[in-house]
User: Fold this.
Amino acid sequence: MRQADLVSEPRTGHLGFARLDLDRERRTGTPEVVFAAGKTPAETVACLAGLLDGATGPEPFAWATRVDDATAAAVLERWPDAVVDAQARCALVGRPPEPVGEVLVLTAGTSDGPVAAEVAATLRACGVGCRRVDDVGVAGIHRVLSVAPDLAAADAVVVVAGMDGALPSVVAGLTDRLVVAVPTSVGYGAAFEGLAALLTMLTACAPGVLVVNIDNGFGAGVAAARIARSRQR
Amino acid sequence: MRQADLVSEPRTGHLGFARLDLDRERRTGTPEVVFAAGKTPAETVACLAGLLDGATGPEPFAWATRVDDATAAAVLERWPDAVVDAQARCALVGRPPEPVGEVLVLTAGTSDGPVAAEVAATLRACGVGCRRVDDVGVAGIHRVLSVAPDLAAADAVVVVAGMDGALPSVVAGLTDRLVVAVPTSVGYGAAFEGLAALLTMLTACAPGVLVVNIDNGFGAGVAAARIARSRQR
Amino acid sequence: MRQADLVSEPRTGHLGFARLDLDRERRTGTPEVVFAAGKTPAETVACLAGLLDGATGPEPFAWATRVDDATAAAVLERWPDAVVDAQARCALVGRPPEPVGEVLVLTAGTSDGPVAAEVAATLRACGVGCRRVDDVGVAGIHRVLSVAPDLAAADAVVVVAGMDGALPSVVAGLTDRLVVAVPTSVGYGAAFEGLAALLTMLTACAPGVLVVNIDNGFGAGVAAARIARSRQR
Amino acid sequence: MRQADLVSEPRTGHLGFARLDLDRERRTGTPEVVFAAGKTPAETVACLAGLLDGATGPEPFAWATRVDDATAAAVLERWPDAVVDAQARCALVGRPPEPVGEVLVLTAGTSDGPVAAEVAATLRACGVGCRRVDDVGVAGIHRVLSVAPDLAAADAVVVVAGMDGALPSVVAGLTDRLVVAVPTSVGYGAAFEGLAALLTMLTACAPGVLVVNIDNGFGAGVAAARIARSRQR
Amino acid sequence: MRQADLVSEPRTGHLGFARLDLDRERRTGTPEVVFAAGKTPAETVACLAGLLDGATGPEPFAWATRVDDATAAAVLERWPDAVVDAQARCALVGRPPEPVGEVLVLTAGTSDGPVAAEVAATLRACGVGCRRVDDVGVAGIHRVLSVAPDLAAADAVVVVAGMDGALPSVVAGLTDRLVVAVPTSVGYGAAFEGLAALLTMLTACAPGVLVVNIDNGFGAGVAAARIARSRQR
Amino acid sequence: MRQADLVSEPRTGHLGFARLDLDRERRTGTPEVVFAAGKTPAETVACLAGLLDGATGPEPFAWATRVDDATAAAVLERWPDAVVDAQARCALVGRPPEPVGEVLVLTAGTSDGPVAAEVAATLRACGVGCRRVDDVGVAGIHRVLSVAPDLAAADAVVVVAGMDGALPSVVAGLTDRLVVAVPTSVGYGAAFEGLAALLTMLTACAPGVLVVNIDNGFGAGVAAARIARSRQR
Amino acid sequence: MRQADLVSEPRTGHLGFARLDLDRERRTGTPEVVFAAGKTPAETVACLAGLLDGATGPEPFAWATRVDDATAAAVLERWPDAVVDAQARCALVGRPPEPVGEVLVLTAGTSDGPVAAEVAATLRACGVGCRRVDDVGVAGIHRVLSVAPDLAAADAVVVVAGMDGALPSVVAGLTDRLVVAVPTSVGYGAAFEGLAALLTMLTACAPGVLVVNIDNGFGAGVAAARIARSRQR
Amino acid sequence: MRQADLVSEPRTGHLGFARLDLDRERRTGTPEVVFAAGKTPAETVACLAGLLDGATGPEPFAWATRVDDATAAAVLERWPDAVVDAQARCALVGRPPEPVGEVLVLTAGTSDGPVAAEVAATLRACGVGCRRVDDVGVAGIHRVLSVAPDLAAADAVVVVAGMDGALPSVVAGLTDRLVVAVPTSVGYGAAFEGLAALLTMLTACAPGVLVVNIDNGFGAGVAAARIARSRQR
Assistant:
């Protein structure tokens, strides 16, 4: 990329209330996504349509995260073939890229499921394979140890955990893969809406743990996809 | 204990600046201790002397925690036979009770040593045996698993850990013994002087974990001693 | 327990979304519990059924905490003989072990009742006796002093308190029993959803106080049950 | 006081770097004090001199708080008859008013002594009597109960406590006197430099507790003096 | 009060879920109050009835704070003559003591009204007169200055303020009366539910400011009543 | 302004529950506004009416912020010609001053729109022109660079941003105009309701950034209006 | 400024460890400053020399903030004519622009002096006049009112205050000038190193208050200078 | 890796106070490191010696982080050929692996240098190439844009930034490489020892940003090395 490209004539789709970054995929390898929280259903639909219109590849594709029920309905009304994952709160319109590689997604408990689902949906949107193993928290350490073969087979590992957030520390000590840790807001009291898990992961005693925001399955998915895709090249 | 005992004629040693609770051992099973932080060396020596004077058993014994170098010197000048543990910052004057039972004290890393030493000194002062296994953090999970036989042999377990504080969650999933968790101020940045470890332990996903204040080896030792002594009765 | 047991062939019940730890009771002495928060009623019922199916003792028993109304109804529809404690938000299916020993459960105020009820339900599920004395906050110190005989008779003491959380400090100065302190989210303003009581208990000036998470009646109950059962052996 | 007085010709002593409020005693009943922290010794001496110069009563008097060793020396060099209380870090120059009434000052532990000393020095400066009883923390509740006669004799009560800060809650349940609670920065870990005690006192379950800033013996002393003086009128 | 009184035969009304402190008024000069938050309407009514039954004076009186609509209705159904102040969320049953003295209650803004109303209701329940002046925040400093005559006439001053909580600092510089400061949860963003105002008041640059918990109109009212009553003796 | 003006006969409109500061515009150049949060619709209408009654200029004008639906309806019922901006939650009654100058209002994302709308409404009420450019967050830096011509044309710049709050740092490095930064509560997890953006803006590495409270579009608008008007003089 | 200017050939002085932004004054109107904290004396001297070398105007000028004693000495050794303000910790080398306009700088107390001195030094470096009035805290409100004539004469007002940080709220209610509020870390306990003052200022009940980081006299000075210079054009 | 390997006969070097994890490199691809903080110089030397003794490859190599002056001297005394990087506080003994690939390390300001140096030393120890570009903070956005060619050439990017921590948000919008963000404790006041930068990075509006602990150059280096090495395979 030449530096001049950055400011001369970026391809931007102006919608008045929003400015679609049609150029993002070329720059960052990740397609622009519509963050539906704080947008009306109509605004989200308009953004998705704008992204589809601006797409330059052979298979138009656009997607949105943090989609509530009303927005999901609006998307499905406009594009009946769209795929909406209710647990992940994601909507995919058109055909995502063929998946390459594989990211292992672990959860510490059942309640971490929705965030793991967002990771999985993001991987699908980014064209990367996903393998999930759920409910392997450290309170039953044999459950963690049993995923060792899966660790060896993965391009990267995403660990989703709330409460004490201890799982990434253990996993990172068992593998040479990068571990992307996602704290969740699961827990009560001194969990402080995910703060406890966040601090645990930031201070993990095993190196190789990288952390994203609380409940940010999207960010973890994008990062893991970048790793997986670059290894598959 | 009759209720009236609580307020009628408690045996209290007044030193002007302090009020020794000579009756504490009868009430709580744990001898009064001198918390030397915030006291001058002379005040700590005076408190120890007051406790020795007020002792009613056959073997006078008194002790102090948070003893700095100057106080240690003052104690040793007054009682040359005193035992001062520099790492634990504890001073024991006279003969502690014969140890019964055994508490297992685990540390996650080498830097947690001073707090574990305070636990050990407290156990000795309370007349309970102690077995230490150090540096078994979860980043090398086989190190944790290797202590399983020790867990089975202990009356109670004290786990001392800083940084992510994840060790108690794993240990409590491996044993039916009570796990007393001590967060330490070891770590930097988002460890926030022990806050991260404290929150991790409070939100441990394995039940049976009980928590004391950051760096509070004394409190953990007293509690573990109570458990051990009550099991030995 | 031999170390090899930990990883070879653990008895795990896979339900897809959850991985039941059927082996937990053998390892930790405490039966696996279903944490119903964040699970659908159907998921909780499925977990309970899985635990009952996997039970190896003569009296099948399983239980769940943080049960809301919908889940309670689903449990009762499946097992009409189940016992649901609405205040404690716990459901017990089958026959819990016969109670041994006795844990004293104190509350500082009437509003701490639901958490104390969770402690009591947990003790019942773990097969330990329970004696409750409510509303003995330190603002009327004679109320605290009046429980001295109960303290002497208990195997362990659980103190449940919100607002200033001062009760455990006073109780621990009156007894040689272990005091498990449960901060509650009762209070407003600077109580900060239980943070004030939590900090008070962690910094209690009387040793022998061990702390669990805010509103964590379950954790306190499990810990107290371990103490009581080990003393009764 | 007429409203116009407030802005017309207040008696202010300008020192360049400071603006002495010579009128404060008339308005608020409390003489202006020099807060020496953040001032050089020379600045503190200049402020004290300015206050003495501006004094209108028969007995010139001025005083300073948070006086360090260098400032104390400078004060004593200028006014050899000044009274400097090293523990309280206060310096009194000239003759304070004759004491009336009596405020009871309680401390929970020996380490709270310096703050209690600042309370006592403030009472002396404000012309109010002081009675101190130290080291009556709630871990030995009989020590608290033994001060009941002192409570009944006092015009107001100041309670100084660090760590769990539980003492004011108990005291306020025993008396009809106003309880001014001073949290201290004594303690470690989750005491968070006095935050734990501050929150405990703010959420005290007994009404009649009023709180000042951490370690603010000066503020507590001024408030208690106002109460005492108004009762003696 | 003799010390023995404290533990011998306190007059306590046991209701099972609650333990009424019928002796509180004798000890502390303030009648026991029912804190209705966290109680069912029936429980609050039962507590009020218990207090009325236990009353020993000629005019039975009992009251409750934090009364919601359902509880208010239950109280009025049982005692049609009860007085319920909807803004203050207080219910008074029977005849409160004749008011003596006068407390000045200031609010910084209109939104602080409900907390000020709780102060006023508490003063009425404690038998103290009340004068309110509303909406005198420091953004229009002439509004503050205009209350100077009211300050001079009051026995004590209660200042209720949210947002920046700056009003007590200004008021305390204008009067020799004790200023009881009540931070409110009014405000948004960095007001952090009253934390900003709380910290402002604790660090007020004018001495003589004493602080209660956020939104704690009850505590401020009790304290101010004690001051006023003691001045009227 | 002479000093005496400040306290002599301020023109204040007393409404019982509120004290309108009719004199504010003369003193501060900004007309008094009604903060409708925490007021009933009737109270807000009464305040607006009082301001209109007290207006001395040729064109009566009054306005309110934080207007919810019920209040908006009440305002429109009373003054059918009022302008209510639903996104900004502002109501303007009468004719605001003719706009002079121009303030540039930037948002980082679509979700920051409501706060930017409050800025715009405030500018209109204060008689200053407004130019908005939305959705120019730093993740697509060319979007920021493209506003350089707008920066040069503005009297002041208001930057509204949630999440990482990084936009003001970049903008302030591109212009000599004052940058008023408004953190918004947009974001989740470690955004902590706007705290992350607030801290980012306070620590901006480019000087010339001034910060207001989270979501405080009103405060930013008033400040920017003052700058613009003073430049146009 | 044309957009292309921003990226084409910026004039940057590379020093290896630092990249001087010689172009900053053209872009932002404020000359680049050397932030000496975290730099060795030699590095600061090298940066200053680089800025002087790169200066294009007739009067070379460069300056540094947060200069400690060692750095001050190094600067004076290199440039004996440099002006070092020890209280402000600023060093000015060469001749700053002739001052235009006037900014009023107020402090609440004497201890806020060093931060106010940094404001003043920054104004001098930016070529703006400064008038300081010190020690006008709200505890003596007449002191605040007495600055009214100064407010009217100023182009902008900077208010520096620690502890409760209440002064900007009062000042902003008295003037139509922009008020730049600087919280300082003066105070103890609940002042939390300036956090209390920061929150107070962010939630100021008077509009027109803009806030900078704690102790950030530099940032306040730059902002005030921009306002003053733009008014003088 | 077979699961049984994890617990059967791990190669552990016991030093009494520490338990060297000689097997870590086989499991995780990263050689064990000695964290020297909290260890005596002798302990660090003993750990390094133990690692060198346990090394199985042809070129023995061991290293330590957080090395203070005394420890550096002890290392150099024992191994005169060791390489000690004073800014990075790292010591490398023996010959690190030949570097493959290249990681780009950016700093926002000069003061972030020590943390970037730790990243660089870690990369060298892990056998990965490093390219540093310093002082490219967003306040001069052209400096950031000028690194675009470097971004395209790198295997991964590490961004080190204190104060507002805004740099990773901008960088991640310009590249498809993974961005590892390291907040530093550089800054003052509301930077809160790196908390502001940490929160900014966690809430970065550009996906692909992964975060490590404050000042944790080691963790960032290990993670970036894993990415680079996996791309080079």
About this structure: Chain F touches chain H through 35 residues (CB under 8 Å). Residues 3-94 of chain F form one domain.
